[in-house]
Amino acid sequence: MIDLHTHVLPGIDDGCRTLKESVDLARAAAEDGVRTLAATPHVRFEYPTKPATMERLVGEVRAAVEEARIPIEILPGGELALDWLDQLTPEELGRFGLGGNPAVVLLEFPYVGWPQGLDGLVFRLQADGKTVVLAHPERNVEVQADPASLGELVGRGVLVQVTAAALDGRLGSASRKTARVLLDRGLAHTLASDAHTPDVRRVGLRVAAEAVGDPDLARWLTEYVPRSLVDGERLPERPSSLRRRRSLFRGR
Question: pTM, whole model, 2 decimals?
């Protein structure tokens, strides 16, 4: 599996505090079946992360993971706050590209309220050739009240990342229900852990993948789509949902 949203870098945001915690998180991910982690530190007012800092820490974590003989790949990235994008130059934005792909940006969706100016921001990024991925919108109160509100953005090519702990219930019933609706309506494209430390929002991708209820769709969410984003390839076709096929059969 490939996990494109983690806070594995030490001492840079509210994720891992030490290099040891970073190694422990990477080890837990590998034991869970993850073979690639993207380091996506917060880039926002509280954590005005610089690309050079992110890149240096990626190198340190890679070296420590290799020394510990943990079979996992660490890739660069960033979780970018919507109101911080204007602080980044085009060159910096590219260096924060998700999984090392400068043409993909991971945007932090807020937990409360629909982001003002989101449509215009998406338009500008797409006009610059960027693929936009929204992080954890299933945790947003507005989206929970109306999951279909993401439909227009998805129709315009925006991708949605659902948090593993939301889908398997670790983040509460509202997030779980919304994550399920997004999956069933074809409004989710990738599953990621958003793991912060080995003991806070653990990786748990395997359990969440099982909670999808359809092995083909789970593989699409955790392997095929993430790999296509990292490699800059066209997204693979979404498999038809076993859950939806069963619902249709029961309705006959």
Answer: 0.93
